[in-house]
Design a protein that fits this description.
This protein is 0% helix and 42% strand. The protein is an all-beta fold and 55 residues long. A 3-stranded antiparallel beta sheet has the order 1-2-3, with no helix packed on it. Bound molecules: FE2/S2 (inorganic) cluster. The site of FE2/S2 (inorganic) cluster has 11 residues, from loops.
Length: 55
């Protein structure tokens, strides 16, 4: 099992790496990484979609 690592980008997303189990309400997904939107602008929430980098 890999340790979970979380990193933040200023004004951007939160990157999570490790042995992840994501429960998005339609069943559990197993992933090794996820990039989560923290700005609320993503059209694919909870995931990041670069909306925070558009002007
Ligand atoms: S943090 Fe980048 S789209 Fe929300």
């Amino acid at each position: 099992m890999r340790p979970t690592r979380i990193s933040f980008q200023d004004g951007g997303p939160m990157a999570i790496m490790g042995d992840l189990r994501l429960d998005l309400g339609d069943g559990e997904q197993i992933e090794t990484r996820a990039t989560v939107c923290l700005c609320g602008k993503s059209g694919n929430r909870p995931f990041w979609d670069l909306a925070c980098r558009e002007n």
